[in-house]
Amino acid sequence: MALQKAAELMERLKAVAPGASNPRDEKERTRLDAEYLAMRTALSWKEDRLDVAEHMFGKIRDLQPTLDSLSAEIIADTLQHIGFDLASKGDHGMAVKWLKRAYNIINHQALDQLSAKGLELRLAICQGLVRGLLDVGSHVCVQEANDLIGYIESEIGDKPLVLHWRLELLQRLPGETFDVDAYSSILHRMVRSFDYSDASFCFLLHHIRRLKEKSPRLARGLLDELLLQHIVSSRKAEWIAKIVVRRIWMVTVDSTDASSDSDSAEILTDLQSLLDKVHDGLFEPLSSDIACAAHSVIWSHIESILSGKLYRVAEAWCMIALHRIFASSGEANHGKFGRKLIICALGNNDTEKARRIFHSMSDTAKDHILTRYLTFKVSLVDWDHDLGCESIRHLSKLSDSSQGRDVLYACIREAQQVGDKLCTLAALQAIIDGWRSDQAAPSNLTSILRCSIRLIHKIEEEATSADAGSSSIAYADDICRLFEKAAEQANQEPKDDDGNILFTTPELHWFRKNAYNMALMALRCHFVIAAALISLARTEDRIEEQLQYYLEARRHIKGFDATLENGLDDKQDDNIQADLLAKLSTLFVFDFEAATVLKDWDGLNEIVRKAKMCRDEVMYKAMGDCMLRSRAPGKALFSTMRLIINEMFELEYFDYEKLAKYIRCMLQAILGLDDDAALQLVDQAIQIAREGKETGTQPPSAEVEWLVATTFNHAIDYYARGEEEPCHRWALKAMHLAEYLGDGGLLRDTLQDKFAKLQFDGLKA
Fold first, then answer.
1. Which residue has the higher pLDDT, 701 or 452?
2. Main-chain phi, psi angles of 759, to 5 degrees
3. Which GO terms describe its biological process (predicted)?
């Protein structure tokens, strides 16, 4: 209404004869006309009537030669908002059109006539126009954006805003034409004119990281320049932390991608030199937080390097970590990297260097349990029994702790692998001393047997590969033979040199118990190996390796099953039988998982049938979940899931809610693919609902309602296609299932009423 009134007044103004008013009045009339048209244009845009807005702009264009700067700013601001709105909707072509109009309106005015807001508006319009041209992305538009940036740059010079535009222009260019040197040059100019604001700092870090993807060398140079020329002098801990950690992270990636050892060495030498300069500029080490953050990045990288046995590169990284700039990280951290240096020296078979590193460590680091373990390994390489026994003596002080025993077990295995019997016995004796009671000390034979058995158990518990488990199986055979000898000596009541009986009654009881357990060792080893292989398969990204792990796991599962079938009898302890059956049920789940990954669809039913002896509901649930997650063909999915459901249903106790969920998921999967199978599934649901009602443990009503609704809707689908016979069949199944819902027949009656209203051959059902 206001604009309508304004239109009438504008018409009255136009009716005034041109010569009847003075120039000042004419100027005022033009200004009012321009503001009126700007408001009309804005209203048309708000009402999403761009055709009317286009018409209004035509009138504005007629006024353009006579507009003053204030009117031009008002109109340009309106046109800018239209352009920005179109750009936000993804209509970049129209956005550019309206932004060009805004630019032409305001650019027609002399710059010295524009207000401060007008100058800001002009730059905002240019920014939107540049972005719009780049979003259009054609060769002409990109060139036009480049020309516009050049024009603005000639006016305002090397300002951050223009440099931002230049970066955006370069980023929009195709990858094969990307000018890395130009991109780096712009960032260099921005680093040189750094204004110490958080926004500029974050902006530079972001683009330097992007430059790293194209040229790691240029990115490192820019980051070094920013750090040394500005960040160190700023003394801002947060900035220093980000750049130092970022710089180290960049090197961890770059050194991994380096084409040769010489390239890696040069990169690390540059990093060492940079840290020297930063330390000299700060006159003190970095704070503990920054040092620990840097150490965390370096530690992870060293771990990955050592996995590839690149000991010389890992050694260079350890020296970086031990730089004086990280002195505040604490003695514990320095001890960790010192131990890594010893590992590198061992990897290079340089035991002399390993000894020098050890002697250069602090007393606390020297006495660390892992440091002494490494010196024990050095002793094995040099066959230095004195150093080995000294290491064992230090480790034996910690044998009463879990970590101490773990390390001693590792020492035993290391000594056995190289054949050093003296060090093996020293480690075994250390374990015995840790377990020795005040009443009696075990004999050498008893000690070896006990420690060996515990060692097998430890291997069994912590095995992470098939090799570890296989070695424990072989070791178990040797221990069994030792038990036979021990039994013979026990029957003869052997005595030691002092005439004391070697085996007491508790010892004999211990022998009998563990001899029985040794008979089951092979089973446990098969179980551990299979579990370890499944764990490795689940985390393996390479398909061929993953499939190989699953195949190997199935071989061990088969071995467990065969051994158990031949060896399990009723004379075994109930707890032992229960434990073995629990392991077997777990292995059946693993076997089922492996079969789905290997696409052995025909073998799934056999696994489910064999698993019946376990009578384990949790096992069937796991199999069902695994099957639903697989991409099995519809026929295999139906047959296997139906068998799983049948087996669960035969159990005395089972979870109706889980069972109903499986039926629902199966119906969703096969409905529309195999109508007969789906109908059989509905029959099974009816059977389960009927028996559940009789026993008072019905499936969840929500699941039953879903099945009823889905079944009835499927009948309606057939009705819509004119197929009467399947429509009747499915509708009757739905109404039959609805009888067991427990709502007093409400849903059943509703479905019957709906079905009765259907027309079949001109007659109602």
1. 701
2. -100, 125
3. meiotic cell cycle; regulation of synaptonemal complex assembly
